[in-house]
């Protein structure tokens, strides 16, 4: 297969590649960039293509691998490495400390509904919310793990019923 034939066959896949690229990126500009990178890699590595195999599958594989590699690279770039002694950057919130009136009201409503729960349900739920493991809660309250799980489950259920207006 000559270089001209190879290029023509690859360009003939453009419409199908656009659909696939958009399904990966969910953004038209990123999809166009992905198609361009795929064409560049396919043309650059033409010598690695075996004419006895499926060209379409080969190009789709290039596109998928290009997308995955870019995603991994972007993830590494956005990773924060905090080498300070007390992990200052990780413990310091990027968002403003001021809460909006809506969030204050929603938090107040949530606290009020949690406080209305019976102690048998409220205490295990609050401990679990604070990060205690089921086993730790069971030992602290002298209950079985099954009872703790059950009470937390029913507490969530009651909260969801009472806070139905706050759900999306």
SSE arrangement:
Elements: H1 3-11, H2 14-25, H3 28-44, H4 55-77, H5 88-91, H6 101-116, H7 119-129, H8 134-141, H9 145-162
Helix pairs in contact: 2-3, 2-4, 3-4, 7-9, 8-9
**Straight-line N-to-C gap:** 57 Å
Helix and strand pattern = HHHHHHHHH
What does the overall shape look like? elongated
Radius of gyration: 28 Å
Q: Which spans of ≥5 residues are poorly predicted at pLDDT below 50?
A: none
The percentage of residues in β strands lies in: under 5%
Largest sheet: none
Q: What's the CATH H-level homologous superfamily of the largest domain?
A: RNA polymerase sigma factor, region 2, helix turn helix motif
- Helical residue percent? over 70%
The assigned structural class equals mainly alpha
Q: Tell me the name of the CATH class of the largest domain.
A: Mainly Alpha
- Domain count: the total is 2
Average pLDDT level: 85
Number of helices: 9
CATH architecture of the largest domain: Orthogonal Bundle
Record field, number of beta strands: 0
CATH fold topology of the largest domain: Rna Polymerase Sigma Factor, Chain: A
3D architecture notes:
This protein has 2 domains: 3-77, RNA polymerase sigma factor, region 2, helix turn helix motif (Rna Polymerase Sigma Factor, Chain: A, Orthogonal Bundle); 101-162, Orthogonal Bundle (Arc Repressor Mutant, subunit A). The mean pLDDT is 85. It has helices spanning 3-11, 14-25, 28-44, 55-77, 88-91, 101-116, 119-129, 134-141, 145-162. The longest helix has 23 residues, at 55-77. It is built from 9 helices and no strands. Helices cover 70% and strands 0% of the residues. The protein has 168 residues and is mainly α.
């Amino acid at each position: 297969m000559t270089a001209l034939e190879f290029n023509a066959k690859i360009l003939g896949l453009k419409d199908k590649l656009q659909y696939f690229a958009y399904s990966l990126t969910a953004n038209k500009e990123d999809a166009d960039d992905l198609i361009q990178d795929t064409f560049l890699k396919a043309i650059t590595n033409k010598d690695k293509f075996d004419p006895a195999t499926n060209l379409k599958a080969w190009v789709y594989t290039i596109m998928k691998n290009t997308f995955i590699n870019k995603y991994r690279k972007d993830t590494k770039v956005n990773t924060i490495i905090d080498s300070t002694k007390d992990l200052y950057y990780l413990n310091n919130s990027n968002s403003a400390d001021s809460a909006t009136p809506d969030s204050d009201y929603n938090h107040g409503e949530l606290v009020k509904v949690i406080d209305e729960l019976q102690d048998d349900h409220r205490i295990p739920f609050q401990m679990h919310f604070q990060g205690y493991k089921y086993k730790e809660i069971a030992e602290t309250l002298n209950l079985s793990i099954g009872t703790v799980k059950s009470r937390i489950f029913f507490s969530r259920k009651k909260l969801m019923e009472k806070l139905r207006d706050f759900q999306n």
